[in-house]
Amino acid sequence: MIDISTVLNAELTPPQRAAALDPANEILAIACAGSGKSRTLAFRISRLLAEGVDPRSIVAFTFTEKASESIKLRVARALAAVGIDPTVVGAMYIGTIHAYCKDLLGAMDATYRQYEVLDENRFKLYLISRYPQLEIHRLRDARPTASGQRPGYFRVIDEVADAWSVANEEMLDLAAISRRDPLLGTVLANIGHGLERDRFIDFTLMVRRVVEALLRHDPAIERLGGQVTQLMVDEYQDINSVQEHLIQELHARGAKLFVVGDDDQSIFGFRGCDVSYILDFKRRYPNASRHDLTHNFRRTEPIVSAASLGRSGNHSTRKSRDPAGVSAVGFLVRRVAPSSEAAKASAVLTIGSVLRKLWVRSWREAFG
Fold it and tell me: Taking Cα atoms as reference points, which of 84, 99, 104 lies closest to residue 7?
């Protein structure tokens, strides 16, 4: 086997290498766009395997299935670089939190293997198909708009779907909801019973069920959760409350925690994601290590500097950093401050026009 230190020295920058080698129990990697966070994660996994860590004890959460496939490929290449059979990737878990929870539920209770998983759109179709049985019409009748009209049908479907997601993501007690809003509580309870009866489960309920099983120390979940010794979380800035509960419970059972993300890239607050988990990481884990991957290998220095200027006004919520990009010659970025909304709109249109012209010119140069 090739010496892992030699490979890491050759393949990673010093900041990336420090993150990949860090043995701390809790590690936060702040990684800007294009900084090689997936590469760092892949070589960290390779280093662990080279040091004898059981691949079955490694769990890496990604935000999407596409991201998981990309990281699996990077891990396979990194393993090959250190002389380890790339097929070892199949023995570890690299994928979404939802898919991981589906596997755990199936191991805990074989009945869950018969359940069909509903994504966000299919869950709304489920609400539509069971509209009267779930008593959603009663909510629509009881909640008139400001003009005294019944709210739109699809608006009510969206609001009920949101209420169901929030209840699960925040692990709210349905009995407590019913005490505050009996009608909404009834509808949500009907949804829960209906999903159980029809053998359906949605993404939010899957994660909640696993967390609840961990909290009550279900023997099957305890056995599986206790096998995890290395827990890694990609795109940590987009974690929501129930997912953070899952991460904390697995970590509490002995798994070392490595999270990577960028608070500047948190864009899913409307889905319940909470950027405070990455901002407050050091407060929750005072002994945690922190690594900053600030070099953007995909963008030039002027672009990175301009983007940093645009975010610099939000000092109270940002992690401090000093981003850098690829050097560029003869490239000037000037910061402008439009004086009105109309001026802002005009500036956006002007920038868009310039970008289109640059794209057309580069396309013509490339393809004649």
Answer: 84
Q: At residue 217, what are phi and psi to the nearest 5 degrees?
A: 60, 45
* pTM recorded for the entire structure: 0.79
Helix, strand or coil, per DSSP, at residue 310: helix
Q: How many CA atoms lie within 13 A of 24 on its CB side?
A: 18
Assess whether pLDDT exceeds 50 at residue 310. no
Instruction: Point out which residues pair with 324 in neighbouring strands.
Output: 295
Q: What is the mean pLDDT of residues 184-207?
A: 97
Output the CA torsion 85→90→93→99 (10° steps). 160
Determine the Cα–Cα distance for residues 226 and 223; give it in Å rounded to an integer.
5
For 171: left if phi > 0, alpha if psi spans -120 to 50, otherwise beta; the answer is left
Amino acid at 100: Y
- Cβ-proximal residues to 284 (8 Å cutoff; 6+ apart), any chain: none
**d(C-alpha 129, C-alpha 118), whole Å:** 13
Cβ proximity of 303 and 280 under 8 Å: no
Give the Cα separation of 142 and 163 in Å (integer): 16
Residue 250: its pLDDT value, please?
96
